[in-house]
Amino acid sequence: MKEKLYKFCSFLSSSKFAMIISAAILVLAITGSLIPKADMAVSSSKLASNFVSVLGLDHIYTSPIFITLIALFALNLILCTLKLIIFDINKLSDIDSIDFKDHGRVAIKHSEVLSFLKATNFDIKQEENVITASKNSFGKYTVIIIHTGILIVLLGALIGYLFGFKGYINILEGSSDNVAVLSTGEFVPLGFNIKVNRFDAKYYDNTTRPSAFVTDITITKDGSDNNSDMSSDNNSFNYILNVNSPLEYEDISIYQHSYGFYLNKKGARFLFDVEVDNVSKNYEVKFNESFKIKDDLFGKITDFAPALAVSDDGKFSTMSEEMVNPAILLETYNIEGEPVVRSWLLSKQKTSGDFRKDYGFMMTFDKLYGVQYTGLAIKKDPGTMVVYLGFLIISIALILTYLINHTVIFIQLTKDEETGEMIFYKVFKQRKFGRSVPAQLFYKLIDKNEKDI
User: Fold this and answer.
1) Helix (H) or strand (E) holding 375
2) What is the CATH number of domain 90-136+405-453?
3) Which of 251, 253, 419, 435 could be disulfide-bonded to 107 (CB atoms 3.0-4.6 Å)?
4) What ranges do the domains of the chain cover?
5) pLDDT at 229
6) Which of 180, 216, 176, 224 is nearest to 199 (CA)?
């Protein structure tokens, strides 16, 4: 029974088991990344859908099977590290257990060998005519340090999985929210309020592909909705959020994730400027709400197009719901209610609202406010710093592994009547093909003397 248990534990700590687990993790990760496409292709198959759902392939990185494999990988690392600590550190105490990479005999004065070893700062252990000299002994520990770093990374991931979350919030421009929704449908209160003051998307010329989207938000610490400007208040501050500039607040990361368009005519407001006699005035009006342009001229906005297009025959149409080329239909009338001007005004074409020559005013359309929502990704991961620490340890250990090559030279001092003083030597390098300065210096010493016999 003990023998079987020992063999089982040896297998769990073996490189073979590590390769099997790593391959399984890789296959699952690749499969999980392809599932969205595959799931669409087999959506008509109930059996396939159930198979994907049961194995958790639609959310692979949080599925039980993936977490089990990660746990087995961690167990393998722990057992392997313990085995290294117990056996590998002290294995050089038994010279016969060392796998020496090079050996030979050479005629050389014993005093010259001892002088070399002392001059190159070898750790020397001599028993009668046997010398064991080691250099860069710290190299024995680099593999253990790498394993420890990987375990710390996994620990950080576990902390993030158990105590963190990742959710999303869609907030309409001018509105606010303080609850994130997880992929499981669970609601997570944030403890603070996010208000979207303004959202703007920019597009590549003549396309509907966004080049950038920016959200001006206000964070209110107490979680209450606050419609006033409290950027100077201790409980509130403003932040400009874009794809490359996430916000870190109270251990929570807020990312610009997506955006969308929702035309709500009741809550939407048009923002524009009207210039009369070189005097400009800001306006904020609703659909079909009358506003005064001059004493004898009034206007109202009766239609809106997020992406206005003009056909060859002069007809207007909306080519997309993206805010690529927002435009408004302005209708003006005089004090008697008679129509004066009816024209489309484009936000990207300022001259479309220039009526100064004929009617004495210029109108510059800014945007339709309150019809776009911004999608924010909300992430809390308390294990992030632990993961960073693990990667730092791994990086340092890898550098040390390259720079430090543990070297051991076993020397047996002998005398021969014909050749005089001789040595029998064996050289061990932790990394066979790695560079070892002490070993190179020793080989130079050997080359100066008689060749191996």
Assistant:
1) strand 372-380
2) 3.30.310.80
3) 419
4) 1-88, 90-136+405-453, 165-264+373-394, 269-370
5) 43
6) 216
